[in-house]
């Protein structure tokens, strides 16, 4: 048994929990925040049989991988008080994952 | 030294912390929630000397074991707008527990 | 790679995260509370290369060590309804730290 501790960005949490639950992995969600100025994140605890560890890591990679998106939600101020949408590349997602050995596992 | 990570149902947290504290075990409580549609739970961190691990696991089992209770709080709607109490068996409790080896432990 | 799980008093969290971030360590903050009647604390997760473990532990010791302070914020009630400031030695700070081995570490 391994314990996977995954720190993921808030915007990927729903997708990731959905994907893991579909595959019958059990997930516990802890409230967490990054250090200063970092956007919100969530820490997930996932207990998993040794031989399924890589499968869980693949699901995390698939659901949370850092990717660039083009956003047009930002606006740029122009002289004369008009605003135009300003397309911009931003990076979202990303996860930090620790796999720890579990010496004993019980459910009561 | 071991670190016991116990995910327990909210309704058992007060009893469990009381029992562990009485026996001089130190408990840290993390806010946590289960995946979708699961009732509230709490994750506890318990640092323990190797030889006391099984004692803590027994306290967790005693305080959190899945059990059936008969509830009469539910009501059933009847024709004519009367309600009668409806006794029902429901399962409560349960805990998932991971024991992890601690390589180094310090208190400052 | 090691995972350092540090339970620190709330009043030391900002200083500790500042010190660790300055040294390029990455910190994740979990909401936590102690057992009954204990003041607020916070649990930090810090992933660290093996050879930097002792450096992180030194930063934690430096930022969180239990120390005595003299407070004059407390007041003592006197006959005739006057109050005088009452200097008092109180202990603050302190941390409990677990170092756990990480079998696999990925960032996606
Ligand atoms: Ni899906
Ligand atoms: Ni008791
Ligand atoms: Ni500094």
UniProtKB/TrEMBL annotation, chains A, B, C:
Listed Pfam families: CdAMP_rec (PF06153)
InterPro entries in alphabetical order: CdAMP_rec, N-reg_PII-like_a/b, N-reg_PII/ATP_PRibTrfase_C
Gene3D superfamilies reported in the protein's UniProt record: 3.30.70.120
Superkingdom assignment: Bacteria
Name under which the protein is recorded: Transcriptional regulator
Organism: Acidilutibacter cellobiosedens
């Amino acid at each position: 048994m391994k314990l996977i501790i995954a720190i993921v960005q808030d915007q990927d949490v729903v997708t990731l929990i959905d994907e893991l639950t579909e595959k019958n992995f059990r997930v516990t969600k802890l409230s967490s925040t990054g250090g200063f100025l970092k956007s919100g994140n969530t820490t997930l605890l996932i207990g998993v049989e040794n031989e399924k560890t890589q499968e869980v890591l693949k699901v995390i990679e698939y659901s949370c991988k850092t990717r660039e998106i083009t956003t047009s939600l930002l606006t740029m101020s122009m002289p004369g008080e008009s605003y135009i949408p300003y397309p911009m590349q931003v990076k979202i997602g990303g996860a930090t994952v620790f796999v720890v050995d579990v010496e004993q596992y019980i459910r009561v």
